[in-house]
Amino acid sequence: MSKLKYKYLICIVFMAVALFLCVYALGCGLSDKDAILLSKNFCKKMGVYISTEPMVLGSRYDHFNLSSKSKELVVRPRGTIEASFDISCKDKEITRFDNHKLRDQVFREYNISLDNRKKRNWPKLLPENKAKEIVFIHANNINLPEDVIFSHMSLDKTYNGAWIGHWKRVHNGYLYENDSLSVAIMAINGEFYSYAKHFLGKPCSTDVKIPKDRAIEVSRGKVSDLLRGDMAKKHLQDFVVTSSELKIIQPNTIFGFLTPFHSTDSRLAWVVTYSLPSNDLKLAEEVNFSDKFVIKVDAATGKVIGGDFSR
Predict the structure, then answer these.
(1) String of DSSP letters for 99-131
(2) Average pLDDT of every residue of the chain
(3) What is the pLDDT of residue 287?
(4) Alpha-carbon span 85 to 127, nearest angstrom
(5) How many other C-beta atoms can be found within 10 angstroms of the C-beta atom of residue 289?
(6) Nearest 5°: phi and psi at 173?
(7) What is the C-alpha separation between 301 and 269, in angstroms, rounded?
(8) CB count, 10 Å around CB of 275?
């Protein structure tokens, strides 16, 4: 890498840190009083009993997205957390709720170990079709946004003993890459257990001017740039395209460099995944253990606007 590129990279890091500190200093925009009221109203609407008033722990950002800040609240009588919430500072709505007290009560009632390291003997659980019916009842009470579609049900028997309904967010028929929503119930009795809404994207243009084959060609060039050393570049053709699909993403590239910080402006992009075809340790070593690349190409301009790679 040239000295000029290093200087650009250093500047990017300093700019990102400075921007983060400036935005953090601006605060939440949601008062503690209003946050507490929102959490209490949510519990009332969902039929969740809490023994004490929620308390505010503080504010935090979501996945390095500087526009997504939330207040974290807990119900904690006598030092035990009964419930926890995240509330969006911007939208002033509940984005996460967990009913810890309910989970512990159900586990004790059915003599299920609270220790995740021990084997759990589950009683009869709700069948998936019945669980889905109940999940949809709770989802209707929450009043889910209109731009989501139901995806699937999953059963968590490792930690919480919950049936979880999953929704994905869409715009003009295209999925948002990282925007999702879930509603969970206790798998034993169907009681409402948790809710999570993870929305970072915004509606954007969905014009597709770049065909898939061109996006694959552009993304392979980016993979070549990311492979370090002549030995690694020799194996460029060993990487195969394992998926290529259009999704609405949050760009994470500045001046051609991939960064951990994601833009707040969404774009429709070809998300192209390259992987090594086998678990060949020698091959993985020769490519510096960078065995998977995800490159995101703007569907309107053909520019690389994001991605990541494993090492």
Answers:
(1) -HHHHHHHHHHTT--S-TTS-----PPPPHHHH
(2) 89
(3) 87
(4) 29
(5) 11
(6) 90, -5
(7) 9
(8) 16
Identity (one letter) of the amino acid at 132? K
- β-partners of residue 273 are 243, 294
SS3 at position 149 = strand
Please tell me the chain's helix, strand, coil percentages from 3-state DSSP, rounded to the nearest 5. 30, 35, 35
CATH class of the domain whose range is 206-310: alpha beta
Distances (CA, A) of 213 to 142, 219, 241, 304: 42, 10, 11, 14
Whole-number Å distance between alpha carbons of 131 and 171: 28
pTM summary value: 0.85
Say if residue 209's pLDDT is above 90.
yes
The domain segmentation of the chain, as residue ranges, is 206-310
Which residues neighbour 101 within 8 Å (Cβ) at sequence distance 6 or greater?
75, 82, 83
> Tokens standing for 217?
């060609």
Name beta bridge partners: 293: 274, 309
Cα 180 to its chain centre, rounded Å, is 7
Structure tokens at 256: 């051609």
Planar angle of CA 241, 247, 251, nearest 5 degrees: 95
Would you say residue 24 has pLDDT above 60?
no
Question: How many angstroms separate the CA atoms of 208 and 213, rounded?
Answer: 13
Report the distance separating Cα 248 and Cα 309, nearest Å: 19
Confirm if 84 and 48 have CB atoms less than 8 A apart: no
CB neighbours of 10 closer than 8 A, spacing ≥ 6? none
